[in-house]
């Protein structure tokens, strides 16, 4: 078996960053350099030209995602220096055939991208018959966020065609190893390398996984465990960014400092400091839940204090969020328990038993249903709709990775405006 190729996908908007990241990825073991679709849209063929100049001996893959005018687009990529040009597998056969003809004329290869193809096995066979050189089992970034797996797609086409198989879409060291074990000839990695703080190190880790897939053992986690692990890795700001700036609660203060709560919500509606339902709800929570309480917006009387916190901590509750006031903050702070409320007051209400547990409530400007996920840290509290928690957690991780890389570039001496080319991207 020949050594699988590692293709680094430069899905970055700014050419000056892409070139540097490519150098680091190559130093870490990347063989092929992909001029990603976002880079092509942002910088055009100049990006292909400059990368060809910078890397004369590497395969340069132009991810044009050609949907029409195959000849023109293959010709322009080839003349700019690409040695492999990507077409959409879903494009009409006439487009594929024209792309293949142009590729033969200009001495480049065609990679067809199976993104969103309804019958990948049949289409892969048709593409092979049309003269395509490489088929790419690709699950797109938006599809990855809802849990679609490129390795599963690859497995479905292995053995069905005899041309080389590439795989792309959300791959990390573990899934890249699985892809090679499944039969991938080319492993395409974007975010996991190009958004890493240490691009060279990440490329090296992937390279090692491709060279010996048995080194990497896949982790088995339930969906909830995976969501929790993702949300523990990211911050509340990463999550609101991933939600297009939605989901943040207003007016809450992290009262205990330096702590974080993540988990599905158990909701409580109470009134005027009545602490019966909040305290009864503790016993209904599972470890890892977050208790979210609406005290009817009242901040002069507390339905929560130190003893309730002890009980919540014993129960394994991840944290407590209160649209209202709390008391005993000094004791709770000493317990380092994640508590978020609107105010502190010394006086409590009475245990009357009004209100409801696990009904939809409003909390600091957001609707919260039982089972919606909460992430709460020093920056504040965000509610994530339960139907989209996995997707949002994945997207938040992408936000965090991008920020990690930008931070690294600032630490190397650039400025935030320079890294992000702010003037270029101002809205006109
Ligand atoms: O073509 C792409 C997106 O359309 C990407 O280049 C490809 O998915 C690889 O990037 P990542 O590893 O971040 O998914």
Tell me briefly what this model is.
The chain has 428 residues and is of the alpha/beta class. 41% of the residues lie in helices and 21% in strands.
Protein topology:
Layout lengths: L4 E6 L4 H13 L4 E4 L1 H7 L1 H10 L4 E8 L3 H11 L3 E5 L4 H14 L2 E5 L6 H10 L4 E5 L2 H4 L5 H8 L7 E4 L4 H10 L3 E4 L1 H4 L4 H13 L11 H11 L2 H7 L10 E2 L6 E9 L6 H9 L5 E5 L11 H9 L4 E8 L2 H6 L4 E6 L11 E2 L3 E3 L2 E3 L4 E5 L2 E5 L4 H23 L4 H4 L2 H4 L3
Parallel strand pairs: 1-2, 1-8, 2-3, 3-4, 4-5, 5-6, 6-7, 7-8, 10-11, 11-12, 12-13
Antiparallel strand pairs: 9-13, 10-14, 10-17, 15-16, 17-18
Helix pairs in contact: 1-11, 3-4, 4-5, 8-9, 9-11, 12-17, 13-17
The structure holds ribulose-5-phosphate.
The site of ribulose-5-phosphate (5RP) has 17 residues, from strand 8 and helix 10.
Question: What features would you describe in this structure?
Answer:
- The protein is α/β, with parallel strands linked by helices.
- It has helices at 15-27, 37-43, 45-54, 70-80, 93-106, 120-129, 141-144, 150-157, 173-182, 191-194, 199-211, 223-233, 236-242, 276-284, 306-314, 329-334, 389-411, 416-419, 422-425, and strands spanning 5-10, 32-35, 59-66, 84-88, 109-113, 134-138, 165-168, 186-189, 253-254, 261-269, 290-294, 319-326, 339-344, 356-357, 361-363, 366-368, 373-377, 380-384.
- It has an eight-stranded parallel β-barrel, surrounded by nine helices. Strands 9, 10, 11, 12, 13, 14, 17 and 18 form an eight-stranded mixed β-sheet that branches.
- α1 packs across α11 (199-211), α3 runs parallel beside α4 and α13 (236-242) packs across α17 (389-411).
- The model has no long low-confidence stretch (mean pLDDT 95).
- Belongs to the HPS/KGPDC family. HPS subfamily.
- Keywords: Carbohydrate metabolism, Lyase.
- It is an enzyme of class 4 (lyase).
């Amino acid at each position: 078996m020949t050594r699988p190729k590692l293709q680094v996908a430069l899905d970055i908007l700014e050419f000056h960053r892409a070139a540097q990241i490519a150098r680091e990825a190559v130093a870490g073991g990347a063989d092929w350099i992909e001029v990603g679709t976002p880079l092509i849209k942002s910088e055009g063929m100049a990006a292909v030209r400059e990368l060809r100049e910078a890397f004369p001996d590497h395969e340069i893959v132009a991810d044009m995602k050609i949907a029409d005018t195959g000849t023109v687009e293959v010709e322009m990529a080839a003349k700019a220096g690409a040695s492999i040009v990507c077409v959409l597998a879903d494009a009409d056969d006439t487009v594929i055939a024209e792309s293949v003809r142009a590729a033969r004329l200009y001495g480049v290869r065609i990679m067809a991208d199976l993104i969103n193809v309804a019958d990948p096995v049949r289409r892969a066979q048709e593409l092979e018959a049309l003269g395509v050189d490489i088929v790419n089992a690709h699950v797109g970034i938006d599809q990855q966020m809802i849990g679609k797996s490129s390795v599963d797609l690859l497995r479905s086409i292995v053995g069905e065609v005899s041309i080389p198989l590439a795989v792309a879409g959300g791959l990390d060291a573990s899934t890249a190893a699985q892809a090679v074990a499944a039969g991938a000839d080319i492993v395409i990695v974007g975010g996991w390398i190009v958004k890493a703080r240490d691009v060279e190190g990440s490329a090296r880790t992937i390279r090692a996984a491709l060279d010996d897939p048995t080194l990497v053992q896949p982790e088995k986690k339930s969906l909830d465990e995976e969501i929790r692990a993702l949300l523990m890795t990211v911050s509340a700001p990463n999550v609101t960014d991933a939600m297009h700036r939605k989901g943040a609660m207003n007016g809450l203060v992290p009262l205990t400092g330096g702590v974080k709560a993540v988990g599905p919500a158990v909701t409580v509606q109470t009134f005027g400091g009545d602490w019966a339902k909040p305290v009864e709800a503790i016993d209904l929570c599972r470890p890892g839940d977050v208790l979210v309480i609406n005290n009817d917006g009242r901040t002069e009387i507390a339905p929560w204090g130190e003893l309730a916190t002890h009980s919540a901590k014993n129960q394994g509750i991840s944290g407590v969020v209160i649209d209202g006031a709390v008391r005993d903050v000094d004791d709770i702070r000493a317990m380092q328990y994640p508590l978020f409320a609107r105010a502190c007051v010394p006086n409590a209400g009475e245990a009357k038993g009004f209100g409801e547990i696990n009904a939809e409530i409003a909390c600091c400007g957001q609707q919260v249903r039982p089972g919606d996920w909460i992430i709460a840290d020093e920056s504040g509290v965000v509610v994530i709709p339960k139907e989209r928690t996995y997707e949002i957690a994945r997207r938040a991780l992408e936000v965090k990775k991008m920020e990690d890389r930008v931070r690294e570039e600032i630490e190397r001496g650039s400025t935030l405006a320079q890294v992000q080319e702010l003037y270029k991207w101002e809205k006109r």
